[in-house]
Protein 1
Amino acid sequence: MRDVEKRFGKIQALRGMTLEVRDGEFLVLLGPTGAGKTTTLRIVSGLEEPDRGDVFIDGVRMNGVAPRDRNCAFVFQNYILYPHLTVYDNLAFPLRSKLWRTEEGEIRKRIEHVARVLKIEHLLQRKPDKLSGGEQQRVALGRAMVRNPRIFLMDEPLSNLDAKLREEMRVELKSLQKNLGATFFFVTHDHVEAMTLGDRVAVLNQGVLQQVGTPEEVYEYPANVFVARFVGNPEMNFLEGFPEGGKLYLGDLALALDLEKVWKGREVLPSRVLVGIRPENILLGQGGTVGEVYLVEDLGADKIVRLRVGETLLRVRVPKEAEFSVGEKVPYLLVHEKLLFFDPITEKRLG
Amino acid sequence: MERVRLEGLSKRFGAFEAVQDVTLSVFEGEFVVFLGPSGCGKTTTLRMIAGLEKPTRGDIFIAGKRVTQLPPARRNIAFVFQNYALYPHMTAFENIAFPLEAQGVPREEVQRRVREVAKILGLEHLLALRPAQLSSGDMQKVALGRAMVRRPQVFLMDEPLSGLDAKLREEMRAELKRLHIEIGATTIYVTHDQIEAMSMADRIVVMNEGRIQQVGSPKEVYLHPENLFVAHFIGSPGMNFIPLLFLGEGRGFRLENGESIRCEAMEKLAMQRGVRECILGIRPEFLSIAASGEIRGSVVSVEPLGYKNLYAVEIAPGRIIRVEDMRRERFSGNVSLAVRWEAACLFDPKTGQSIR
Amino acid sequence: MVWKVAKGILIALALVFFLLPIYWIVATSFKQWPDIFAIPPKFVFRGTLVHYLTLFNIRPEEAAKFGQVGKSLFPPRFLNSIVIAGVSTVLSVALGTFSAYAFSRFRVRGENDLLFFILSTRMLPPIVVGIPFFVVYRALGLIDTHIGLILLYMTFNLSFAVWLMKGFIDEIPREFEEAAMVDGYTRFEAFFKVILPQALSGIAATAVFCLIAAWNEFFFALILTSEKARTAPPSIAAIQGTSGINWGQIAAGVTVFLLPVVVFTFLVRKYLARGLTFGVIKR
């Protein structure tokens, strides 16, 4: 069994966090700035010691073990290539430490292999400041790869790249991880990156783990309001709902839905609930009630319509072929099966 | 009516040609977005319109008047900076009122106009606060208010949303667009974010390496890009490029994997233009995984986005293209892709220009 | 165009203003005895090496003509200067870099107080502590020893070195050594392999400042040394002949004295240019 498990309670940064990264898995830790993501990574690597709790790598307790003895590789956000060394020497750096002391012939062989995989063979004699952002990123990855670590820890490694390059590196990173069969523990604040890269996604907020699950689980069945809002673009719509006498009344929408059609859970709903619905689960041009088009945003592959109903603005995702003009009155329909219910006080999902 | 006109505008920094021969008209009430990667000359162009940078060649007209030689203050423009550029020692009210005071507008008039602007922006309750006490979204609104209060001929905005975090940026994007619908001010907006450009612009000016690549509505630049750069830059992910060899009308095109595909309209076009090698451009959402599609490949990775899946499919060694699929189930292994030909583009691989 | 010419003239004037004293000294060192006193000063003259030759006792027979008694003491004192300033600079920079690293990277208790305390040693005018130092040094037997002056200069320069180096090390992202530590190095190794090469420009700048301070120091050298460990500055001032001050030899001594600092600064100028633009090191 090769897994990392850690439990610790750092009063501010992290609270009672328990998380398991499985062997060969791509686990993404997602959260806003200051959520404690980087702290988590630094604790696993040993750059920071937990105040309480334990860290295990491959079942061995790692508390008090120096970073260099943990056999983790850390890829930093700003790459941290040594500017006074060539790319080759940067890649060789870990292998020339006393701990991993490798003879130069073997170093050369390994670097050539890594450089081939990452397509940086032509850059080996250059200095880092002569490389583009994407190339620097690859070299940083290469330095992590040369010594076959037990786990790759990555701290927002794509966030310094421009949008186009980030998309390309995403695919490369994912297939690299699959081909290496390596364990990746990846930190990001970008939910698209998290969804698209992760085998599983762990959502963290204010030092508290909110949910761990596959990207689909996190998107379709968020554990609470925070996860629902944080994952997805544009955000999920939230409405106040009042279940009463077999009907669900939705705040501003002046809409009464048959409760039994939208609520499949067994427990009785409280008298006030938060109802969440994703923008793609509202259909325009159908249904009996109407809203006014407030704004249309063309995103290319699809469009976002902001529909005004009373004082509420609903975000609705529509296909790009759909044409709406501002001020137009349009009927809309909520897809009943897709409504999610949250407790307004605890903000946890019901059912 | 024409509000701003640029004629053969060029700017050279030493040996570096930052902007080359930009000619463009911006009409009254229009929201025009300059879009391009960093270093493409979009900000330099904006700064020349504002008078913060002197053009090496060419002329600038604002409201029919040649302003090329005028200092910024006499051009009647407002400039919203990326980092807000608010004065930290003044309250939000004083910041907004600042340009009016410079013009010597009477006191009551200043009061009235600042309140009016604050109301539109929803800032009324924040007027007494200093910038340090405001959230980044509100700071940006104050900066906007300072621009609006003077009722300038044109608003110039330099990546005003890029300092905000993703969620807030989305909200401000919508608010800014709605504000434009309501007050209809002529706006020239610079960004490197193609989503911002697509969702806000009446017209997009795509720039690269100092030159205009294409000018058109979001729909035009998205569906009918004039060259490979525009096709790749717009859209997330960008357009797929598939090299083809034209075999002749009635025989179709040959793919890199040796198989051939047929499309009458494309064959006709290729015949007319006399091309042999060409590049097929097709956006991910116009490809779908089908039982009997035209292009075969194998799935490299699946990226779930929640409401759709984004596939990376290898269709020839090293040639990976992106495919969108709305179905919930995940496909893997060998698949075949159906092409919606009506949305396909053809490019000349030598010039990079669209063939139409 | 007019501007360019005006700028050129301005720069030329400034250069004349700043370089004139140096020219004067260098020229004097090559002038023959009567030319040194010529009024108006001679800009064209027949050069001579006699002052240098007597200064280094190569032609001692010439020395007597200028009223010099015995041998010139300049060579051993010049050597003292090199040893004392050199060793104290190396020590200040080395210790300063280590302590600066600690202040920069670790949470040191009372960090700000300590840093201020270190700096406060700099605020004292040296003349105030001159007498106490003399008394203490006499008690410890450090008067007129190399080690005594080395320790003293190191103490004075250390505060400066710590502050300067802290600024440079703060600029180097922490992740540099953290990356190395994860990659299998100890902190100590990471410091030498990664931080030190990055801090080279800072070290060069600090070393130049320390060297200049130690090299030029006059007051303590005058009161704490007499023979064995006396450095060049007090000794140049003391070059006198029986028939008045030997200006030619003083000028030669000063010129020779200028050289090491110029050479050293020239050697490290590559780093210096980067190092002197504090805080704008490109990341």
Protein 2
Amino acid sequence: MIVLIVACSVENEPTVNSDNFNRKTMLTNWADNIIIPAYENYTDEISGLVKAKNDFIESRTIENLESLKSAWLNAYIAWQSVSMFEIGKAEQLSLRDFTNVFPASKEDIEANIASGTYDLSLPSSRDQQGFPALDYLLHGSAESQAMITARFDSEVNMRNYLSEIVDRLSSLSIAVLQDWSAGYRDEFISKDGSTASSSVNKLVNDYMFYYERALRAGKIGIPAGVFSNTPLSDRVEAFYRKDVSKTLFMASLNATIDFFNGQFFDGSDQGASLQSYLNFLNSVTQGTDVSSLINDQFTRTLTQAESLSENFYSEVENNNEKMLETYDELQSNTILLKVDMFQALNIQVDYVDADGD
Amino acid sequence: MTAMIGLILISCSDDENPSPRIDAPDTYTFERNGSSTVAFNGQTNRIMMAEELVDAMLDFSITKERLLEMYRNETASGDDASPFDDAGLNAASQNIKSKVAASTDYFAANTSESSQIKADFEFWISAQVEEVFPNQNTVASPGTPGQLADGSSIRYVNARGLVLNQVVAKSLLGALMADQMLNNYLSADVLDAGNKRQDNDNELLEDGENYTTMEHYWDEGYGYLYGTSLDKKNPNSTIGQDDSFLNDYTGTVNNDNDFTGIADEIFNAFKLGRAAIIARSYDVRDEQAKIIRDRVSKVIAIRAVAYLQQAKVALPDDRNNTTAYGTAFQLLSEGYGFVYSLRFTRMPDSDQPYFTKAEVDSMLSSLLEDGPNGLWDVKNSTLDSISESIAARFDFTVAQAGS
């Protein structure tokens, strides 16, 4: 890892960045063809989740629980396409922290349900809400579907908690989409310079952070035991549901690859993005074709990931070498992205690697 | 049967008649009549007490009295206490407080400063309970203690953004472990005081023990770095993993490509110095003490700069985004403690630290005085100027330490 430390300079936004690439076009493509459509899709799925939740709360049947679980999964998959855009309102609200911190703390969730008093806005409550908490409530809060339904039926506190955490996901997601639609999009595109607080520099850093921490470490490395003495099978995403970890991971990986290549969210076309930026720079420097190296490595990663079982929990328990191989493929691109790409784009890493004890 | 091959070193002396060659063993293994002469469980106990104390500062159900008992290993009225979870520590006679700012070289004639330093720790411990604990479920903001997210962790800060458990941990590293090692147990004045040299020459053993006092003192210095090492004879096999204090950060610095080898240099100096004591080569012994002083002081300085520089990166772009300060405050608080510890470093050819208390206090104040709310207001330029001041007195650059 190379951290480029440059002496602090006064933060003026130059109107033209130093390498003549049209950042404004790229930012416009990102905002209009990728980010906003992805948030629209996400908020649609969340509103489906809210409806399914309301139906289940009103009528606690196994059928309604099934529908709710299905709505949860659709929203969770949609989330994977927006999680990396922790900028603007999402950054202010710490959207990812309140949406998808796992493992959830089932002890704290049950304590919240029992006491009826909690403050979901606290950072320390991150592991008691969001998709992982719903995963626990819908799949892990009792021994069987019938018993889960029975718990919800008899425990009003549990219904209230379910309702609150779904409603909170909804209000957070709506706040972020509204901010994009009501002015942040223009602000985002207008900051088309190349200083540390420019949109490109910030979003590329957000992307890298997401790739390293959420995708590489969170979904694969941590459960596989890369950062600990033993594998940690209870740290997989969707631990209680178990059989959708790969689906979520592939959604995230594909979103990561698509963003790199400027693929429209609706898949209809490709626009300016990191790939075209790198190609532009490479046509000037005639150096290594970094974007091809990165895409080749993405392809290898996809192939390796396809070989994983749908159930990451059992994969870690029984077949962890495959998880580690997947990690290794993700790790290869970490270097290409964080070192080669950052250097080519002349962007500095704006976050710290240190664990800070 | 010890393996006494390994290093054969000639002492660094300018004499025309070179000192006798000293065989240092491969590992820190020294015996007399078939039994080990090495013992440092007092140091082991104090490291373990410090670990428990620092961890307990994040136990929101603990009382101030109990935390202070852990620091003192006695009750407020001076009676025996059992504040630790570990029964062995409760039975131990040692305590942290009496060895904080207690080195002979620096504090034998400076009890007033010593008592101020000892009181600093009680102040931070009390503040944690009185200011931070009640705000466990408050989100911190300028002037308000509480919690902040730091990645997947939660940090608890006082009104000025200090993570007090980190301040205590990194300050103890200097005030207890480094001070005792560099300015007491490796001190020629201490090692030679009274009849110790003569007693060592004559192999006069301590009553009921298998070591001379000089041998034992040297081992006690060793114990402040390796007291909880997995393999105390070969501690570099797990350097960095064996405590949260000097061992931890010696390992961290050793893993930095700019400073690889520093762990070996320190260990080899301990080993050779100890062999020199047996061989009665006191010049060689003191040369090794200088090496240890130089390297351990450097570890402290490097980590101070590293944390301040990393904090610069971690501070949010938008300084008004108060929820985003968690990582920066954790790093700044660790840096604060390492700066505090600079007062306990030791220049190798001197009886002085690299920075006096006044200089250290000035750096600490400047961290907290860029605005009315302490670390909330800290400026990058302040972090840079403190980093430059520190690096200037050593042979490393801010860039080397900062990465």
